[in-house]
Amino acid sequence: MQNADIARLLNRLADLLEIEGANAFRVRAYRSAAQSVEGLARSITDMLAKEEDLAALPGIGKDLAEKIATLANTGTLPALSEAEQRTPRGLLELLRISQLGPKRVKTLHDQLGIDSIEALRKAAREGKVSALSSFGKKTEEKILAEAERIDEREQRTRLDEAGQAADVLVAYMQQFDGVNRITVAGSYRRGRETVGDLDILVTCNNDQAVMDHFVAYDGVADVVSQGHTRATVHLHSGLQVDLRAVADESYGAALHYFTGSQAHNVSVRKMAAAKGLKINEYGVFKGDEQITARSEEEVFAQVGLPWIAPELRENRGEIEAAQQGKLPRLVTRDDIRGDLHMHTTASDGKASLREMAEAAQRLGYEYIAITDHSQRLTVANGLDIKRLRQQMEEIDALNAELTGITLLKSSEVDILEDGSLDFPDEVLRELDICICSVHSKFELSRARQTERVLRAMDNPYVNLIAHPTGRIINGREGYQLDIEAVLQGARTRGVHLEINAQPKRLDLRDIHVRMAKEVGVLLSIDTDAHSVAQLDNIGLGVSQARRGWLEKNDVLNTRTLAQLRKALKR
C-alpha cells in the first residue's frame, strides 16, 4: 500500500472511533499517525523492507507502528474492520458533507437516529436538524443543499494520491524487459487537482507479456479486463488504472488523444479536418495513408501548431494563443527561490525551526518565511505575542549562523470575523512579511465574508492572503467569497494572494489563478508545510500555477530576496 492509502485508512479509523465517542487521545493518536505517514518523503513499504523502526517516526509509538506495518503488508487492519462492523454503513457517507465532522455525525445519529444520506435529507426537510442545539437554520439549509446533490458528486482521487500510485506502478512496469516508452496520460498529466482514473501508455516488444506483467502487480485488487493490447485493473485504494500498448509510430497521437481534455482534442481534430486530415488515438491519417506521429510535436505540427503544454489543454484559449504565437512560458519548479508559508513545532508543525531551514537549504532556496499560527488558533497551539517575539530572536540567531539562506520573520495571522487581525499593529510591523488567513466563521454570507477579507487587506501591514477560499478537496467547498472583488481589492492595495500547495487544498483553483494573472495580482506558491517532507509539495503548487497560465514573473517567490522585499512594500 502507498503512504496515502495507509493515511486514509488511519483517518477512517479515527473518524469511526470519534463517531463512537471513543477516548479523544486515542482518536488524536490515529490522526497524528496519519499525518506523519502522509508527510513522509519515503515509502512505508520501503522502510519495512529495510527493517527500519516505524516507532521512531514522530507521533508513532510501538502499538501504532505494528498497526501501520499490518496495513502496509496486508492492506487490512483488524481494528478498522471491527469498527466498521460496529458502525452503521451510512454514517461514513455523511462525512462527505462539508458541514459534518465526526462529532456532528454522532449527534445526528444519537439524537435523531440518522444513519444515511436519505435519512439526513428527510430530517433536514422537516426542520429537525436545526432544532438541535449545535446546529441552526442556516447550517441546516447548507446541509440539505449538499445532501440533495451528494449523489451527483463524482468521487475522484486527489492528484498527490494518484501520483504516489502512478510513480510506484510506472517503476514496476519499467522493471520489465521490453517496455520502451511509458507515460501516465489523462487528467493526471494535465495536472488536474483530482483524477477519475489513470491512463498509462506503453510501447513495448511484446504486448501480451506486458499486459500479463501489469495485472500481476501486487497493488492490484481486481482485474476488470485483460486483452492483448489493453488491461484495466482496480488498485487496493479503489483507483482504476487502464494500460494501453500502442505502436511506436502512433505513440504521439495516442499520447495526445489520451491526455485530453476532450474539448481540446475536438478543437484539434476540427483543425485537422480543415486540412484534409484525421487525427485519432491510432495516428494521423491523410485518406488511408498514415502519417508518422511518434511524438506530440509531430501531431501538433500537422495542424500548424507548436507543442502545447498538457496543463493548458482545457480548451480555454490555448489553441488561439498557439496560433498567435502567444503561449505563456510557464513557470517551473526551478524558478522557485523560496517558500513563504510553513509551520514548525512552535505551533502545529512536526519539525524544528532549524530542521525546516536546513531542509530548505537542501532545496536550494534563498529564503523562507516561518509562519506559525497566531494566538487565536489554540487548536494549532498558536503563538501569543511573547512566544512570537521569542521565535523572532531564534530566527535572528539562526540567520547569523546559516549561510546562503535567510529566514523571514512571519506569522499566519488569523482574520477575525469583523476583518480585524489576531495581532495588534505594533506586533505586525515587526514582521518581515504578514500572512493572513481565515480559519473560522466559514458560514458567513458571501457579502460578509468578502468584506471581512477586504477589511483585513486594508491593514497596511498585510502582505499575503493564504489559502484564500478555504476549500478542502473532496472535503468542503470553501466559504462563500466574491473572488473577483477580492482580487481587485488586492490589486489596488498592493496585497498578494497564495496558491497553497497542500494537496488537500490547492487553493486557489486554476480558474482563479488565471483570473489573478489577468487582474495583475502576483501570486505566491507556498507549501504550508507542517513537516520537512511536505516542502516537496511545491511541485503540486507549480502545477496549479501552470494550469492558470502563470509565467515566472507572475509568481512572487520567483524573485530574489532583494526583489521580494521590494515587492512586499505597500
Keywords:
seven-stranded parallel β-sheet, Beta Polymerase, domain 2, 570 residues, 4 domains, alpha/beta, single chain
Give the overall form: globular
Helical region count? 24
Strand content: 5-15%
Q: CATH architecture of the largest domain, please? A: Alpha-Beta Barrel
Looking at CATH, which topology of the largest domain would you report? TIM Barrel
Q: How big is the Rg? A: 25 Å
CATH class of the largest domain: Alpha Beta
The major β-sheet equals: 7 strands, parallel
Low-confidence stretches: none
Assign a percent range to the helix content: 40-55%
How would you write the strand order of the largest sheet? 11-12-13-14-15-16-17
Structural class by SSE content: alpha/beta
- Count of distinct structural domains: 4
Mind telling me the CATH superfamily name of the largest domain? Metal-dependent hydrolases
Q: Tell me the total number of β-strands.
A: 17
Mean pLDDT, to the nearest integer, reads 92
